[in-house]
Amino acid sequence: MDDRVHPEVRRTATEIDTMEIRGAATIADAAARALRTQATESDAADAEAFRAELRAAARTLHETRPTAVSLPNALRYVLRGMSSTTVEGLRQNVVDSADEFCARLERAQADLGQVGANRLRDGDTIMTHCHSTDALACVEAAVEQGKHIEAVVKETRPRNQGHITAKRLHELGVPVTLIVDSAARRYLNDVNHVLVGADAVAADGSVINKIGTSGLAVNARDRGTPITVAAQTLKLHPGTMTGHTVDIEMRDTAEVVDDETLAELGNPTVKNPAFDVTPPRYVDAIVTERGQFPPESIVILMRELFGEGTSEPWAEP
């Protein structure tokens, strides 16, 4: 571990890695705040040392989640604001950029919720997968508009993130039916929309999200149930415009089965991918704070926001 990295940054990185901090927007917010702490607590002797320290902190954060696109997008936003030639000037650059990023993040989810709520009608029932604050923002906005919404919530093993979704929906006054993941197809005829979030959206409109999303989307298309992806623009993966692929994180097998049970089963190989890729042909719309887009058109928004590619400002020059 790099000694220049502040303990608060290391703690944040650990909590992102262990999923104590989860959800793309929450991860991005935590990363920006961690860099802010690194800047305010830095005792770097000169501007170059300060820049190197911030790059080291950003690398520590970046290495925790290879598919959480919001994380590098947050790091880019904060680091690119460093324009001063003095330590105090750079410190203020980082503080200002981090504060601005977090404020925009808070507004973005509310704006996205209003766009997504327009797709929901009074009396609709949705089906959810995993836990997405962006998807919940759509439901919350719909409820605030006076619409009655009900939900079928997949439990989403192995970490049961659906339980978090069920609790939050209950707090919003939304009647919830919790189902095992394998029962999704049975209940698709009872819902009007599948509403999910995204960890990343590729330039071709493919959606990278919690494992099981792709299978749900295929079943939804077969049943004629529209699927909406709620994703802030910070989840757009600009690297995919220049040919980069999205790594699929493999989680610890202990999340699936403990060592004792594994031995009793004859020590089979266990695979625990965190995410899968849903092709754009199975997605009806991607809802962002900038509006609603058919998946094939998301690259237009991506180019508007990021240009034709991205750099990695945390890398050593």
Automatic annotation (TrEMBL):
Gene Ontology terms for molecular function: ribose 1,5-bisphosphate isomerase activity; S-methyl-5-thioribose-1-phosphate isomerase activity; translation initiation factor activity
Catalytic-site annotation from UniProt: 130 (proton acceptor), 199 (proton donor)
InterPro entries, alphabetized: IF-2B-related (IPR000649), IF_2B-like_C (IPR042529), Initiation_fac_2B_a/b/d (IPR011559), M1Pi_N (IPR027363), NagB/RpiA_transferase-like (IPR037171), R15Pi (IPR005250)
Stored Pfam families: IF-2B
Top-rank taxon: Archaea
Gene Ontology biological process: L-methionine salvage from methylthioadenosine; pentose catabolic process
EC number: 5.3.1.29
Reactions this protein catalyses: alpha-D-ribose 1,5-bisphosphate = D-ribulose 1,5-bisphosphate
Keywords: Carbohydrate metabolism, Initiation factor, Isomerase, Protein biosynthesis
Binding site for substrate: 22-25, 65, 209-210, 235
Function: Catalyzes the isomerization of ribose 1,5-bisphosphate (R15P) to ribulose 1,5-bisphosphate (RuBP).
Miscellaneous: Reaction proceeds via a cis-phosphoenolate intermediate.
Protein family membership: Belongs to the eIF-2B alpha/beta/delta subunits family. R15P isomerase subfamily.
Protein name (Swiss-Prot/TrEMBL): Ribose 1,5-bisphosphate isomerase
Source organism (scientific name): Haloferax gibbonsii (strain ATCC 33959 / DSM 4427 / JCM 8863 / NBRC 102184 / NCIMB 2188 / Ma 2.38)
